[in-house]
Fold this protein.
Amino acid sequence: MSARISWTAGVPAGASASTSTPLGDCNTCAGETPAVQDIRALLATIPDPEIPAISIVDLGIVRAVRDDCVIITPTYSGCPATHFIEQSIRNALDEAGFRHVRIETTLSPPWTSDWISDEGHEKLRAYGIAPPPRGAVSASLRNDTHAQCPRCGSMNTAEISRFGSTPCKALWRCNACAEPFDRFKCH
Ligand SMILES: [Zn+2]
């Protein structure tokens, strides 16, 4: 590898200690190295295997990117797509010359559909999948969430099955236009 990146002890030369980079959601971290920016751009090109219209970054499963490590949180602990996503990331990193970058999985804090980006919401809707409402975790405890039909926009909808085409989606039907649609499960 060329050009070792001097990012030891979390504090780059010339920066005060108070600007150390926290681990976590680093989308707005200042002082990202070019390598981190390249890795982040690479990840944004990897589609979710179940919903190819959105990337794994849109989905919010990429929790942190460092120059030696990518940390992901799967959407659903039993989701069979998780292994496939890890393999896709591995292949993309290897092909781009980032063989030294590890992939780590963390289950805490658990993924929530609130982590889906605004862009991800738009892409889901355009793809015909009802995006989850913001704050869905607390709403679903009251069991009064309603999905908006991604085709006609009606709120007159009903859940047909907890299990849609994949474990991460539920099958719903719109009473206004009579079309079934997938809805991202809230958890
Ligand atoms: Zn409809």
